[in-house]
Design goal:
disordered C terminus, 3 helices, globular
Amino acid sequence: MSNWSDFNDAKTPTNVIPKGAIAKVRLSIRPGGYDDPGQGWTGGYATRGSTGAVYLNAEFTVLEGPYARRKIFSLIGLYSPKGPDWGNMGRALIRAILNSARGISDKDVSPQAQAARRIRGFADLDGIEFVAKIDIGTDTNGDPKNEIRTAVTPDHKEYAAAMGPVTQSFGFQGSAGAQAPAQPAAAPAAGMRPSWAQ
């Protein structure tokens, strides 16, 4: 039988990136208009769902490699009325994103590393570039969909190849893809703080 008359053995199309793939991505937050200044949620970045859960509606664009320009949509949990687990998972993901984007080992507890894990608000995350490990979940119909649940930090053997040469210790690619310094930054003068620590 001709390949073009019998399609029983044709592969079922899938648009899912394989589980475990490592890729450099850019995070864009789709604003939901929900603010809670008491929590530090300002600028309209957060979204409040019908169940009362609050999250960041995240769009990750793959920047390089075989999946370049592919988009992955995930939620970063901030609050759930069911308990703290979802918010804690969201905080862990954001910590990993900051470590990845700013070239910080997760084990580094120096004052510089601690400052690099602080943000002034969610605007600092909008446009940030980091290395992600791609996972597979299911959508509302039960079909497979890509998700990002973790970021790859400098401790991972594939980090340097995926992130590229622009990331130094405590250097980073910040909002809107600002480039890290070409050389490791000198210690700030007395009374001055790195831009990401302000």
